Amino acid sequence: MSLNQKLADLMFPDVTHSPEHFENIYPPRKLNEGARVTRIAPSPTGYLHLGVLFTAMVNRIAAKSTGGVFYFRLEDTDKKREVEGGAEDILKGLEAFGVIPDEGLTASGEEIGRYGPYRQSERAGIYHVYAKSLVELGLAYPCFCSEEEREKARQEQEKMKLRTGYYGEFAVCRGLTAEQAIEKIERGLPFVVRLRSPGSEENRIVFDDLIKGRIEMPENDEDIVLLKSDGIPTYHFAHAVDDHLMRTTHVIRGDEWVSSAPKHLQLFKVLGFKPPKYAHVSPIMKDDDGGRRKLSKRKDPEAAVRYYAEQGYPADSVMEYLMTIANSDYEEWRRRNQKADRSEFKFSLKKMSVSGALFDINKLNDVSKTVIAAMDAKPVARQVLDWAGEFDKGFYDRLNRDFDYTVGIFSIDRGGDKPRKDIAKWSDVPDYVSYFFDETFEIRDGLPDNVKPEDAAKIIGEYLKVYNPDEDKTQWFETMKSICPKLGFCPEVREYKKNPEGYKGHVGDVSAVIRLAVTGRKNTPDLCSIMKLLGKDRVFQRLEQMKRKLENQ
Fold first, then answer.
1. Are 410 and 386 in a shared domain?
2. Could you read off the pLDDT tens digit of each residue along the chain, which spans 553 residues?
């Protein structure tokens, strides 16, 4: 037995397997050539961030478009930063927006797939096998430096204006012989396991990033920590082992990890693994007084995915918007393919923004209005009820009294070639439909500028004489025109424009008075349809009430 093997046995007395054992347990996947295996691997350290949802969406599309596999792995080795319920929040959030993994952890708490466990905290034994193998090969070693010694070295590096890190002359334990290391372990000294880096900062590595293109960086020469003193792996080491054994072909992640690429590529090489292809996604940016900055967890409520649930954006709206910032040609494709499923779009990593896409809440609203306008009335009613049940109990109770009436509200001006686009999110709806319920009906707007209160009262009085709830839209408008002459209003807008001095106004002004009396607003969807839904008694009541109010002014 070599000294390195003796050292490895001493460091890992419970490890009995070799790497080959796990290579057999997790064999290469049987997929068609070109199929991508991608993953989303968040840490449960907080709420689901929009950037994580965005990156997960890109990973899923990249896999599914090639007949591959998209899986979810939880990187939960940093227990100090873990937030209770964080993993469940992330999984439920992804599921709510349709970003559902084929494999790994699920929102229901199940674990799907044969390449698990998918929690890093349950894979410690696997990491130890590979770490032991590196020690046996002389490619890793125990480091006994205390935190105080490391801090002193950092201060010295800063004083000398050197790069901080455990390398070169500062890699104190690298020079220990196997005998010296064995002696320290036998004395019970705590240690971490470090990589014996074969790199030199004078050398360069080059790799092709599938989003950013060719990247050239100094080679890693740091002896990075592989296992902490408690045996828990660092992200660097765990992700390399996991991505290899789970047979990940493409690592699509945030570009904050670009600087770590030399470490990761070196780890794959040292471990004897084929490295995955990397694609680093630029962060979602926000306009800030003319400048651009990252969408911030601290500053921006829209950074949290739960914001969109609270505001009531349909999941489809958010995903449709994210597609517009994911690929520059998506909007043009959508204009040509208005009813096509998003999965039919030919997504390309190379068309993603290198500098970071700009988040625009106004554009999201426009996209969402289009999505909602294309929905049928019943799904709209159900989704509004679901939202209100969680976020607006009073509104929920009003809507839920009569589901058919609620569906009727959302049926008005829906469908056709040019549906109205008034609603961007479900939180807009309570105000938008308030006039359909007596307890929230109020007169908000004023009369048309050219209509006096006394004339408005006469308009309502004449209309009450002829109002027929059974009329269709054409008949309704003809009735509206029929009362114009005796009131001094022109029944034809074109004629009025030729001789405005000859009339008090036109039929549009007359109908505006009726609209105001019935809905309290100047602008609404089709008034005939609104009046039919409100019903004869309610319409009469509101017209009479408005007439009395005008007569008393």
1. yes
2. 799 999 999 999 999 999 999 999 999 999 999 999 999 999 988 789 999 999 999 999 999 999 999 999 999 988 777 788 888 999 999 999 999 999 999 988 899 999 999 999 999 999 999 999 999 999 999 999 999 999 999 999 999 999 999 999 999 999 999 999 999 999 999 999 999 999 998 999 999 999 999 999 999 999 999 999 999 999 999 999 999 999 999 999 999 999 999 999 999 999 999 999 999 999 999 888 777 888 888 889 999 999 999 999 999 999 999 999 999 899 999 999 988 999 899 999 999 999 888 899 999 999 999 999 999 999 999 999 999 999 999 999 999 999 999 999 999 999 877 889 999 999 999 999 999 999 999 999 999 999 999 999 999 999 999 999 999 999 999 999 999 999 999 999 999 999 999 999 999 999 999 999 999 999 999 999 999 999 999 999 999 999 999 998 7
Residue 19 lies in a domain: no
> Which residue segment(s) compose the domain that 384 sits in?
377-440
Structure tokens at 303: 């950074």
Could you tell me if 153 and 249 lie in one domain? yes
Stated pTM of the model = 0.90
Cβ pair 199, 221 in contact under 8 A: yes
Kindly state whether residue 524 falls inside one of the protein's structural domains: yes
**Residues 508, 403 within the same domain:** no
Number of domains in the chain: 3
Comparing C-alpha atoms, which of 142, 148, 167 is closest to residue 231? 142
Task: Identify whether 296 is part of a domain.
Answer: no
Query: Distance between CA 390 and CA 141 in Å, rounded?
Result: 55
The CA distances from residue 513 to 162, 262, 352, 466, in Å, are: 78, 71, 52, 15
| All residues at 6 or more sequence positions from 399 whose CB lies less than 8 Å from its CB, including other chains | 381, 384, 385, 388, 406
245 lies in a domain?
yes
Is 256 in the same domain as 386? no
269 and 413 assigned to the same domain: no
